[in-house]
Amino acid sequence: SDHSLVYPKSPADMDWAGLYPAHAVKKHETKASHDLSLSEEESRALKAITKNVEIADIGCGFGGLLFALAPRFPDTLILGMEIRISVTEYVSDKIRALRSQHATSAAQDYQNIAVLRANTMKFLPNFFTRSQLHSIFLCFPDPHFKQRKHKARIVSYTLASEYAYVLRPGGIVYTITDVRDLHEWMVGHFEKHASFLRVASEEYDGEGESDVRERVRIMRTETEEGKKVERNKGEKFVALFRRVEDPPWP
Ligand code: SAM
User: pTM of the entire structure?
Assistant: First the structure.
């Protein structure tokens, strides 16, 4: 149940500086910023984040994707979102441990990843502003096999509209699953959505180096679920969808 979850009223209400402390700066060097009697909310308002999250991993599970993306895209802030409390705590403890292990390095390793407990089917636009993200990962979403459970899938026409809102034109939704039916479901919903075009596989498979290829390679090999599928010699279905420019008003 997610009754205990709290949602920010808007992205500006998020404590980004708390999630990415190495990327936070004091807004003003004022007397107030040294005032220990400030409430948490008041002291938060004095800190700003120097850049925005640009990659979201929806239903990040145990965070394998985050930990693999972190060193590969060190200048990008990456956020994992996960609904299960214990799993979110595991990921956040691991991030804290990795940060302190690397605390002496100048590279600020693992300061670019964070995890947040949330039901991403609700209020995604409360977390991110319009066009904020360049990549959204949907890795091995729960398949919810039964017909009457399909509404629990994290892809639907409505959710595709929310992903389109937070994704910038040119940005990409990356999907992977070992369940053929779910793959076809995701492809169906994104393909019929006017804000998305499927990315041709030549762009992410085969020879050559690019960020998109690197992200797909990591997505195929580094998530916990992906590793499980690998061990069981299962098949992995990948599909990418590019956010297109909004059509001009008639
Ligand atoms: N992406 C990870 C991977 O590839 O290893 C985890 C895959 S696991 C099968 C699906 C994850 O999505 C679970 O950890 C589950 O708790 C999470 N999840 C399901 N529905 C969610 C929701 N509405 N909001 C956030 N997380 C959700």
Answer: 0.92
Binned at pLDDT 50, 70 and 90, residue 6 comes out as: confident
Q: Which amino acid is at 180?
A: R
Strand partners, 113: 78
Ligand 1 atom with the shortest distance to the CA of 84:
16
Q: How close is the Cα of 143 to the center of ligand 1, in Å?
A: 10
- For the domain covering 52-243, report its CATH number: 3.40.50.150
- Tens digits of residue pLDDT in 106-118: 667 999 999 999 9
Query: Is 78 touching ligand 1 by the criterion CB < 6 Å?
Result: no
What is the rounded distance in angstroms from the CA atom of residue 116 to the CA atom of residue 47? Answer: 19
CATH 3.40.50.150 intervals, the chain:
52-243
Residue positions forming the annotated binding site for S-adenosyl-L-methionine: 59, 82-83, 119-120, 139, 223-225
Residue 80: its H or E element: strand 77-82
Find the mean pLDDT for residues 30-53.
71
Whose CA is closest to 155, among 135, 184, 132, 133?
184
- Nearest of 113, 63, 76 to residue 211 by alpha carbon: 76
Q: Measure 68 CA to ligand 1 centroid, in angstroms.
A: 17
Predicted confidence (pLDDT) per residue in 53-93, tens digit: 999 999 999 999 999 999 999 999 999 999 999 999 999 99
**Residues labelled as active-site residues:** 142
